[in-house]
Amino acid sequence: MALVVGVMLWLLLRPAIDIAVAGLTQTLIRAFEHPRVTRLVVDDHQVQVRRSDFRSDSGIPTVSLTENNFNLIVLLALYLALPRPFSRRQLERLFMGCCVLYLTQTLNLMFHVKTLYATGLGEWSQQSYSDLARNVFGFGRYFTDLPGRFSFPFLIWLGFNWEVVMRMLRPGEEDKD
């Protein structure tokens, strides 16, 4: 039941999450580029990577936001499966966990865009990014894609709910408060 509710909440919040993740990612990217040319445009759960210095006839690269933020379903399901999920304490932890997950989703999208710039634009990428930069952005992308995307919800949930989870694993022990 927690998973079904998690999916429904994600579907409901998804448009706002897409805009929020793309907005913070654009801010981070533009904070470190000179001149500021990157614009991320959300369209149908994808982000279009637009640069004002691209030729007008060049293709517009896109990144899927579905695979970027579906891990919210896992986090929501884990929180809803805990005892008393609607208590003030659990709702506060859920909010904090969602904020941390939002930051990981933003980093993932940022690494996607920077990897596209560093490796996907041919000669321009070779001239504009060093081997070290290409490797750092590539590692960041693949780390936040593969192990990160699937482990972040569990680590965040466990980090904010360690004592609750440990109590669930040892049901015979009494609270010593």
Give an overview in words.
By secondary structure, the chain is mainly α. The protein has one domain. The protein has eight helices and three strands, in the order αβββααααααα. The radius of gyration is 19 Å and the shape is elongated. The chain starts with a helix and ends in an 8-residue tail after the last helix. The model has no long low-confidence stretch (mean pLDDT about 90).
Number of self-contained structural domains: 1
Terminal-residue CA separation: 32 Å
Number of distinct helices: 8
**Order of strands side by side in the largest beta sheet?**
1-2-3
Order of helices and strands: HEEEHHHHHHH
Radius of gyration: 19 Å
Fraction in helix? 55-70%
What structural class do helix, strand and pairing data support?
Answer: mainly alpha
Low-confidence parts, pLDDT < 50 over ≥5 residues? none
Major sheet: 3 strands, antiparallel
So what's the overall shape? Answer: elongated
Record field, number of beta strands: 3
- Overall mean pLDDT stands at 92
Strand content: 5-15%
Provide a quick synopsis of the model.
By secondary structure, the chain is mostly helical.
Question: What are the salient characteristics of this protein?
Answer:
mainly alpha, 177 residues, 8% strand, 8 helices
